[in-house]
Design brief:
Elements: E1 4-7, H1 11-15, H2 17-29, E2 34-36, H3 49-52, H4 54-71, E3 74-77, H5 80-95, H6 97-107, E4 120-122, H7 123-131, H8 133-139, E5 147-150, H9 154-157, H10 160-163, H11 173-179, E6 184-185, H12 201-204, H13 206-222, E7 227-230, H14 233-247, E8 257-259, H15 260-267, H16 285-296
Helix pairs in contact: 2-15, 4-5, 4-6, 7-8, 7-11, 13-14
Length: 302
C-alpha cells in the first residue's frame, strides 16, 4: 500500500484540532503509513476560487499535488471540500495538456512542476475501499452502542461521474463504516441533502443557510439519534456552530457533532477529550457519560 500524505486543510487546524489528532491516532492504530504534507496551502476552497478564477484555482491546487508528487505519496484528505478541490483539479490537469502546460508555467516560477502521478483520496473512501469495513470492525475495542445520524455531505458524493463511490441518492458505504463501530446508522428524511454551508451560502446568506441546517436537525432529532457523524469539517462547523446560532432563536437540539475520525477513535477506546469532543461548541455531558460507560464496560441504562 502506497504511503499517504495527510492533507489537513484550513478549517481543521484552526477550528477543530481534535479531528486532526483523532485522525492521526486512528491511522496509527490501523497500521497505515502516513506523513503530514508539509508546506501545503489551502486546497483552495472550491466554492470560492474555482468560481472566480479557474487558473488560479488550478495553480494553487496543483502546487499541493506537486508537493505530494515530490514525496511519491498519494494525498489523504479529511475534508469533503479539500477532497473535491484537489481531486477535481487532479482529474482536469491529467486530461487537459493545454491547462497543464499553463499551470506548470506558473509553478515553474517557484521551482515546482505538476506531472499527474498521485491520486487524491478521502478518508472515508480510503477506509472503505482499501481497508474495508470488516477490518475496521475487527479492530474495534469498545463497540459504540449509540444511534447515529450519518451525514455524507455534498462533495463526497457529487458529481457522481467523478466520485464513483456509490449511489449519490442512496449511498451505503459511510453507513457501513459507522456501523462497523457497533453503532446504528439511523435512517432519516433528507439524509443526502446539503448541511447548508457549502457554495458560500453560509457566508453570503446565513439565514438561508441556517434554514437548511434546521431542516436536517429537525429530521435527525425526530429519528431519535444520539449524535451526528460527519466526514467534513465544514459540515461539522455548520451543524456545531449552527446549533448555537439556532438556539438564539429558541430552537435547541443539543446533538453532539462528531467527525468519523473522532467516532472511530472513541470505538478504539480513546476518551472524548482525547479525540477533542470538548472543543466543539455543542458539548453533551449525557452523550459523553454514555461513551464513558461503554468504555468502562458498564451496562448502559435505558
Amino acid at each position: 500500500m502506497k504511503e499517504l500524505s495527510l492533507f489537513l486543510g484550513c478549517l481543521i487546524p484552526n477550528r477543530y484540532p481534535g479531528i486532526e489528532k483523532a485522525t492521526k491516532l486512528v491511522l496509527d492504530r490501523l497500521g497505515i503509513k502516513w506523513s503530514e504534507l508539509k508546506e501545503a496551502s489551502c486546497c483552495p476552497a472550491p466554492g470560492v476560487f474555482r468560481s472566480f478564477d479557474k487558473i488560479t484555482w488550478l495553480t494553487v491546487a496543483s502546487r499541493n499535488l506537486a508537493l505530494a508528487e515530490e514525496k511519491d505519496t498519494d494525498i489523504l484528505t479529511i475534508c469533503n471540500g479539500c477532497f473535491s478541490s484537489l481531486m477535481d483539479a487532479n482529474n482536469i490537469l491529467k486530461n487537459d495538456a493545454v491547462l497543464r502546460d499553463e499551470v506548470n508555467s506558473h509553478l515553474k516560477k517557484i521551482g515546482k512542476e505538476y506531472t499527474g502521478t498521485v491520486e487524491v483520496r478521502h478518508i472515508i473512501d480510503f477506509l472503505y475501499k482499501d481497508i474495508g469495513a470488516h477490518k475496521v470492525r475487527n479492530a474495534i475495542e469498545k463497540p459504540l452502542e449509540v444511534r447515529a445520524a450519518v451525514h455524507y455531505g455534498c462533495h463526497l458524493l457529487k458529481p457522481t461521474k467523478d466520485r464513483k463511490l456509490g449511489g449519490a441518492e442512496c449511498p451505503v458505504f459511510f453507513d457501513e463504516l459507522v456501523e462497523a463501530t457497533g453503532a446504528v446508522s439511523v435512517p432519516y428524511e433528507g439524509k443526502t441533502s446539503c448541511c447548508g454551508a457549502g457554495g458560500g451560502v453560509r457566508s453570503a446568506m446565513l439565514e438561508t443557510s441556517l434554514k437548511m441546517t434546521e431542516y436536517k436537525l429537525e429530521r435527525m432529532k425526530k429519528a431519535g439519534v444520539d449524535c451526528i457523524v460527519d466526514a467534513c469539517p465544514f459540515c461539522h462547523l455548520q451543524y456545531d456552530g449552527g446549533q448555537v446560532e439556532l438556539a438564539k432563536a429558541g430552537k435547541t437540539y443539543n446533538l453532539p457533532v462528531i467527525h468519523y475520525s473522532q467516532f472511530l477513535g472513541l470505538a478504539f477506546g480513546y476518551t472524548p477529550e482525547e479525540v477533542g469532543l470538548h472543543l466543539n461548541a455543542i458539548v453533551s455531558p449525557g452523550f459523553e457519560e454514555k461513551i464513558a460507560s461503554i468504555q468502562k464496560g458498564n451496562k448502559l441504562l435505558e
